[in-house]
Amino acid sequence: MTEAQAAKVKYQVYIPDNPQFALGLAVSHLMTKPAFANLKFGEWSRILVGQINRRHYAFAIDPAKRVVGFAGWALTTRDKAEGWVEGTRPLNYEDSLAGECLVFNCWAADNFRVHRFMVDEARKLIADKETMYFKRYYKDGTSRPVRLNVNEFVDDHIERKTKALAG
User: Fold this and answer.
1) Which of 27, 114, 128, 141 makes the best surface tag, with the fewest CB within 10 Å?
2) Which of 55, 59, 31, 56 has the alpha carbon at shortest distance from 45?
3) What's 161's DSSP letter?
């Protein structure tokens, strides 16, 4: 596919109704990603099952219905999000149901265009939240905690993208 053809690809959000199917699809997609392939099975399974049971996940698919991205998140309070991002406490299922903060604890995109599509869609999720949290992982094995305050610019981005798509 040429770069010009790739630029015209229209991705879609896909959230399967069947949780077992969604889990299998997530595992199939994420097991090939280095950041996820080496994680402990039990711990990572609990995270994925929790996201899927709460419907706090979404796939990005291409026009051929192939999975090209996955995001999973938790809704929680600031103190619990801070503990998670600093690595001092995990988030359990009950911690992840509601709150003013959104934690992305799973993000995988096959390429930059998929990543940009996912960012645009994620803005819709965080528009009514105070802060978004995630951890940035690097190839050398290090990581960095990230906190982004949600402000009026999120709504502006959503509005601009909506207008651009409309014509």
Assistant:
1) 141
2) 31
3) H
